[in-house]
Amino acid sequence: MYYFDPHIHMVSRTTDDYETLSKMGCVAVSEPAFWAGYDRGSVDGFRDYFEQLTSFEPSRAAQYGIQHYTWLCINAKEAENVELSREVIAMIPEFLNRPGVLGIGEIGLNKNTRNEATIFLEHLDLAMETNEQILIHTPHLEDKHQGTRMILDMLTGDQRINRNRVLVDHVEEHTIRPVLDAGFWAGMTLYPVSKCTPERAADMVEMHGPDHLLVNSAGDWGPSKPTAVPDFLLEMRRRGHAESLIRRVVYDNPIEFFSQSRGFNFQVPE
After folding, report:
1. CATH topology of domain 3-258
2. Chain-centre distance of CA 248, in angstroms?
3. DSSP code of 136?
4. CA distance 136 to 216
5. 82-91 helix and 43-51 helix, angle to the nearest 10 degrees
6. CA torsion, ordered 233, 235, 239, 243, to nearest 10 deg
7. Residue 141, Cβ density class (10 Å: 0-12 exposed, 13-18 middle, ≥19 buried)
8. Residues 73-101: what's their mean pLDDT?
9. pLDDT digits over 140-163, tens only?
10. In whole angstroms, what is the distance from residue 176 CA to residue 211 CA?
11. CA-to-CA distance for 66 and 86, rounded, in angstroms?
12. Torsion over CA of 134, 135, 139 and 145, rounded to 10 degrees?
């Protein structure tokens, strides 16, 4: 079965990982901008990073038949530096019309601070001005419920936002329902340390149904598994779920969501 990984940080992966993903049925990936493992010191550092995301990574992926898409922002981990964040936000439009750019993301909160919220709202303003889709990072572990509530309050308080064009990622059992009930898409991240497991993701599909649900691997610098989506697929098969239901979550739903972006030019594999 073909699948789509809608949130994976391939800049942190080797080229061998692209080959492995291709062999396991991955036909497309979506890569949000994120933290580099250290705080970047200038807007030029971000410009170089966006160049990598929009030019080098698509060509690296294409060698293995994988279509690569990306999102642009300054991540919440670096949003405490408001001055730098505003410089980066002002620079982002230089890249928004490049092929494969899907929108603004992954924006959100890290420690739920005032500065993070300020930069989150200014990213929303940019997305509304440029008619972009939005991909959102929710905080980790003990801060997740509060951070998700703060994010939902900011989103629902903005009447400009089309909720069907927003993906709220890293949901868990205690945050998935508020996200779906508010009319947003929800992403389940399969991660060995925090967030979710294939078994818990399968539980959530069984409890809440497949509508507006995506599943991803994150695959970033830390302990992570770029082939986590096939693990979810296997768990769903082990439980006896229909192939059509599994395909909906790992393939049809990502395409339905991303098709709302002008930068999505997905070619169906032959």
Report:
1. TIM Barrel (3.20.20)
2. 18
3. E
4. 13
5. 40
6. 10
7. exposed
8. 97
9. 867 899 999 999 999 999 999 999
10. 12
11. 33
12. 70
